[in-house]
Write a structure and sequence with these properties.
With about 375 residues, this protein is an alpha/beta fold. The chain folds into 3 domains: about 140 residues, eRF1 domain 2 (Nucleotidyltransferase, domain 5, 2-Layer Sandwich); about 90 residues; about 120 residues, no CATH class. Helices cover about 50% and strands about 10% of the residues. The chain is globular. The N and C termini lie far apart (about 85 Å).
Length: about 375
């Protein structure tokens, strides 16, 4: 009986881990005991394992005590989760934006307080309280690695735009108009003339040559990633690649968009309803109703921003390339006759409906009503 009183709750050790670049803070609590704190160097997996073992030993917790941990998703990614689960520990990765905070104007904020809040919320979670926080779905290492190519391609395209804009800005300082053939102009810098007909100043020419070299590196890396993607789609060997190939069959959806949608969204998330699809992309509504006040605040924007932005772009493409589809007809009836503001709001609503339709197409093979597939190329000979 005395032993039962010592452990009013199941024999479970709760640990909240506050991660930061300078140090990690740990908060421990078990069986209703007071919370104890310690800190450690960031990223030291061996020390983290030893800290947990030391606490179990010092507190003389019985063998078989369940250890549960949690931390907020952030710069350290998911390797901490994978390490903890490899030790047999049940870990939860928390969406940092879902943490409850004190709304007072001034409040104490430090790693110790944050770790304490984590472990208290973890205890509430295991007591069965719902909506304590939002839990992040952790992809496998393979699923996480599948995101590298299109994200790198996205960064390379932005970097290419930056280099081109820099070159055009430098030319404008000498009265040189934007060249018709950009690449050819950079190859023949010796022939370029300023506004007065003089050769480029040596310092400016040297800077343009450096920009040309950087731009060439970006272009080479971009082509290499695109070649790798083309090869993967020619002979799809994984379920994710097959989904990309299927999605790209729809007119209005290119290879890049299909790749992003699948790798970021459809290849590793198991959606159970259309509401989950819209919510995961941050396209769900946020109504405000208090007393006599009722209004719509717009979409939540609390999901995957890459998918949300691409879904809106695909919405505009869908209207242009799938004008006879049911989705396009719905948009025309509801929003086409309104002003620019109403049409922009309508395209977000269309993006949500389109995303749900793509989910049905990928998972169940249901073609969106009225949509047209791309013609299958005929191989001759």
């Amino acid at each position: 009986m005395a032993q039962d009183r010592a452990y009013p709750e199941p024999r479970r050790l709760h640990i909240g881990i506050e991660l930061s670049a300078s140090k990690w803070g740990l908060a421990f609590s078990h069986g209703g005991s007071r919370i104890r704190h310690t800190s450690m160097a960031p990223g030291d997996a061996t020390d983290l394992k030893e800290k947990i073992a030391t606490y179990l030993r010092k507190e003389k917790l019985p063998e078989g005590t369940q250890v549960v941990t949690c931390y907020e998703a952030g710069r350290d990614g998911f390797w901490v989760h994978r390490f903890l689960t490899s030790l047999g520990i049940q870990n939860i990765v928390i969406d940092a934006a879902s943490m409850k905070v004190n709304r007072r104007f001034r409040r104490v904020k430090n790693d110790r307080v944050d770790a304490t809040q984590l472990v208290l919320d973890l205890i509430r979670h295991y007591r069965g309280e719902k909506d304590v926080w939002s839990i992040v779905r952790v992809p496998t290492e393979e699923q996480e690695d599948d995101r590298r190519d299109h994200r790198s391609l996205e960064r390379l395209k932005k970097e290419r735009t930056q280099h081109r804009a820099r070159v055009l800005s430098l030319l404008a300082t000498q009265g040189i108009p934007s060249p018709t053939h950009f690449g050819m102009f950079l190859k023949n810098l010796d022939e370029a003339k300023t506004w007065s007909g003089q050769p480029l100043p040596p310092g400016l020419k040297a800077e343009l040559e450096r920009e040309r070299e950087r731009l060439q590196v970006v272009e080479n890396q971009k082509r290499e990633i695109e070649r790798k993607q083309e090869e993967a789609l020619e002979d799809p060997s994984t379920p994710a690649m097959k989904k990309v190939q299927r999605l790209a069959m729809l007119r209005g959806i290119g290879k890049d968009s299909a790749w992003l949608m699948v790798m970021e969204f459809f290849s590793w998330r198991d959606f159970r309803s259309r509401r989950e699809v819209g919510g995961a992309a941050g396209l769900g509504g946020t109504p405000y109703s208090s007393g006599a006040t009722e209004r719509e605040q717009g979409i939540s924007k609390s999901g995957n921003s890459r998918v949300r932005h691409r879904a809106v772009e695909l919405g505009w493409q869908w209207l242009r390339l799938q004008p006879q589809s049911e989705l396009s007809e719905w948009y025309k009836r509801r929003f086409a006759e309104g002003g620019a503001r109403r049409r922009r709001a309508g395209i977000v609503a269309l993006a949500r409906r389109l995303l749900i339709a793509l989910w049905h197409f990928i998972e169940h093979g249901v073609i969106p009503k009225g949509a047209v597939l791309k013609p299958i190329p005929v191989v001759v000979g």
